[in-house]
UniProtKB/TrEMBL annotation:
Family (UniProt): Belongs to the NiCoT transporter (TC 2.A.52) family.
Record has Transmembrane as a keyword: yes
Protein name: Nickel/cobalt efflux system
Keyword flag Transmembrane helix: yes
Transmembrane portions of the chain: 46-73, 85-109, 130-150, 170-192, 204-230, 242-263
Entry membrane topology: Multi-pass membrane protein
Subcellular location as annotated: Cell membrane; Endomembrane system
Length: 271
């Protein structure tokens, strides 16, 4: 497993960007959407905070796994085949999520709101009816028990060049959680606000975000395939992880901001 940058500032920026990007995962978006919809009826006081609570539970698992994996690294090494296998798994699910959300945008009638499609959200759909803050955080923790999240936590533990340094690994997990909490929290507030304005504005904004998630998922999957098949692309990616991650986050944030501003403008005009 390749080491992360050792420069403290660059390392912190990279891990924070990875957390931001992870917060835009289709499974996060779809599950937070479901939690907010349920709590808007069952527990409206907490509905707007579902994104933050989900992220706290999710990030807590990342921090714990990073610390434990760091301690275990003193006597255990990650098999060489794990990195390639992890890339293939990520490409598969990104492609699946991208196609699912693209079809969701294309097949949803124009008069209805497009809901982001997730994989784990379908398997664990009943968990979206969590109506208490602690239960919402527990849902986030359960969603962290997946290959992509656990492998990310292991990278923080084993890719820093300091096996056994569990405080450093846990600290990286905390930075990752803060990035994820930023996007999950903003996304939760955005969905909560759109639900309060269930009109044409919300339907258009949801369609924009659904299409953006689909296109970026497919683009990142294609980049993963290129990295796996081409040594030249792989070599280029070695020094460009931060740029690529920030680019993906930048596009999503720009679309997110435009959709938010559009919904806000229509909301103020209607008021």
């Amino acid at each position: 497993m390749q080491a992360l940058p050792q420069d403290t500032l660059l390392l912190t920026a990279l891990v924070f960007a990875l957390g931001l990007k992870h917060g835009f995962d289709a499974d996060h978006l779809s599950t937070i959407d479901g939690l907010i919809r349920y709590n808007s009826r069952a527990n409206p006081r907490w509905a707007r905070y579902c994104g933050v609570l989900f992220s706290l539970g999710h990030g807590g698992v990342v921090i714990a796994v990073a610390a434990v994996a760091s301690l275990a690294a003193r006597s255990w090494a990650v098999p060489g085949w794990m990195e390639g296998f992890g890339t293939l798994v990520s490409v598969f699910f990104l492609g699946l999520l991208g196609l699912a959300n693209l079809f969701a945008v294309l097949l949803t009638p124009s008069g209805q709101e497009v809901r982001v499609v997730g994989v784990k959200g379908r398997w664990l759909g009943g968990l979206q009816r969590a109506g208490q803050p602690a239960l919402v955080a527990l849902v986030g923790a359960l969603f962290a028990l997946s290959f992509d999240t656990l492998s990310q936590a292991t990278v923080f533990a084993l890719g820093t060049g300091s096996p056994g340094d569990w405080p450093r690994a846990a600290g990286l997990g905390l930075v990752f959680m803060l990035g994820m909490l930023t996007t999950d929290g903003i996304n939760g507030l955005w969905i909560w606000r759109l639900l309060r304005r269930a009109d044409r504005t919300g339907r258009i904004a949801s369609r924009i975000m659904g299409l953006t998630v689909a296109v970026l998922s497919l683009a990142v999957a294609a980049l993963g395939v290129a990295k796996y098949l081409s040594p030249q692309v792989g070599a280029w990616m070695e020094g460009s992880e931060l740029s690529v991650g920030l680019g993906v986050v930048g596009v999503l944030c720009a679309v997110f901001a435009v959709a938010w501003a559009f919904a806000r403008a229509r909301f103020c005009k209607a008021a």
